[in-house]
Amino acid sequence: MDVVCNKSPEVVRIYLPPDANCMLSTMNHCFTSKNYVNVIVHDKQNHLQYLDMEAAVQHCTKGAGIWDWASNDQGAEPDLVMASCGDVVTQEALAATALLRQHFPDLKIRFVNVVDLFKLMPNGYHPHGLTETQYSALFTDNKPVVFNFHSYPWLIHRLTYKRKGQHLMHVRGYKEKGNIDTPLELGIRNEADRYSLAMLAIDNLKERLGNSGARAREALLDEQIKAKNFAYETGEDPEDYNDWRWPL
Fold first, then answer.
1. Cα separation of 221 and 239, whole Å?
2. C-alpha angle 143-137-64 in degrees, rounded to nearest 5
3. For the ranges 55-59, 62-66, 112-116, 240-244, which has the lowest average pLDDT?
4. What are phi and psi of 171, to 5 degrees?
5. Confidence grade of residue 179 (pLDDT, cut at 50, 70, 90)
6. Which of 60, 61, 142, 209 satisfies CB 3.0 to 4.6 Å to 25 for a cystine?
7. Beta strands in 99-213 (DSSP E)
8. Count of other CB atoms within 10 angstroms of residue 242
């Protein structure tokens, strides 16, 4: 993806569908397109299904959008934007959102998913790029953003360079950390797991939470250590990780 981003914006496209229906919609679009190099990044393992076909087509047509069913900021100012781009990282970002809402029921969280990576670029640099108004409507320009990305985190910083509020963008992704790991272990090593994301959010919500987030942060750290030790001892992730579903 880093290499493709260096190529002509008139030619290259990068898509990271979060589930199977979004994958079908993306593939349909790419098969009917001409004179483009389309890069599609998707895992080969089974994943959760988040959107029905109609919603998936709508979401992929936009390329990036707010998932209302995973957000609770409707009609209110969000305290935090949780964002994702990719399949595995979307599940972890959703799980982190659920953990935060469990520990802080009054916290307003907006969940944003990106399918078309070049939506993040300013529209003057790429034909798919969002205008400043469109970008701020999704990510705000004055609230912390925790962005979980499928690939190297610095690519997101590069694509959103000089976006208003970019200093509030906190990206997690692959950092060349890994061995013979379970999926959760790999996420923990790269700080892209649900616990790391939730703790990162707490760390960047001090103006909103003050010192009240300390107990929740400690509980999340305990859960992370427990899951990591379980994986090390058994070679498997905890059952509640493997069977996780959006609970809200």
1. 18
2. 105
3. 240-244
4. -105, 140
5. confident
6. 60
7. 109-114, 145-149, 169-172
8. 11
